Amino acid sequence: MNGLEVQDDMQANGSLHTRVLRVVLNSHLAALQQPLSQIVSNTLDGEFAAHKLDSKQWTELPSFALAKKTVAAANALAFFGPELASDPSFLEASLAYPEDLFLTAEVLRLIPSALHFIVAPILMRGHWASKTMVKYLEPVVEARRLRQQAESQPGAESKSSKPTDCIQFFLDSVNTKNNWTTEKIIQVLLGIWFAAVHQPAITLVYALGDLCAHPEYIEALRQEASDKVSESRLADQPLLDAFLKESCRLHPSDSISVRRKVMNPFTFQDGTRLLEGDVACVPLQAIMRGETYYSQSTQFSPARFMAESQDGASPKSASKFTDVDPHYPLWGLGRHAW
């Protein structure tokens, strides 16, 4: 494959990811709302039941561990379907995989590259988590691919409704002329899965901390959620959206973003030079916590991301949490940012 073909393949993959995650999955959120709510409820009930209550009927749980388990259980349904999402062995591996990957990446950044091939397998525990996930995913993805191929034949009829999960969304979205193998689909799912657990869990922990620090928002958030659930419009919650966005502004998961390795020497207009092999990045934390773009930047104020109501109408989001913005580079920048 020459350089042009590689570039075209990367661009096609980026477009496919965007379509599946931002369009197709989003269009199915209404149908997933009830089963996702049930999984979250069951996970929380199970975690609380596993810990002893004190004399005042309180119990203490580690927030990050609880957040990761809850996020992993819910996302597993949307990614892999109800059968795998309810399998304890698969869930254990799906929770361990992002943790092993993150720990390995952080350690490898601190040691000489010559030692990476020795240290990485040890830190990844012999790749137990990824191997377990692949073992479960292979027969599911292969069976769906074969069924899809059979149903695409002339005169064939669809015999059953399609599953509502990311496995199926990727299968449906792949160009038939460049059909992906089972291995490639699994690689894509595992690549996305890391971000699907790690980032939301961190976001949830900080949001809970901010909620405890600013209890004046609790009742309004509870009322907003109650109204939207009754209207089956869970996604339309401007206060919750602004609350999460402000929480992440003050507590970004990293201090830098948009890391890019320099392939050719480059000089900026101010004279700053980048040499081949350098790594350029955006100062994420400095931008979002600085006074340049956010007045009273150290204060927690979700209202900065909400538009004022007019004629008694409900307030709306001035900018959504998921928007890509140079002044809020949490999600990266450019057309491939999700």
From TrEMBL:
Any one Pfam family match given in the protein's UniProt record, by short name: p450
Record's subcellular location: Membrane
NADP is among the record's keywords: no
Secretion signal span: none
SUPFAM superfamilies reported in the protein's UniProt record: Cytochrome P450
Keyword set includes Aminoacyl-tRNA synthetase: no
Major subcellular site: membrane
Superkingdom field: Eukaryota
Names of the cofactor(s): heme
UniProt keywords, alphabetically: Heme, Iron, Membrane, Metal-binding, Monooxygenase, Oxidoreductase, Transmembrane, Transmembrane helix
Family annotation (PANTHER family): CYTOCHROME P450, P450, PUTATIVE (EUROFUNG)-RELATED
Family: Belongs to the cytochrome P450 family.
Name by which UniProt lists this protein: Cytochrome P450
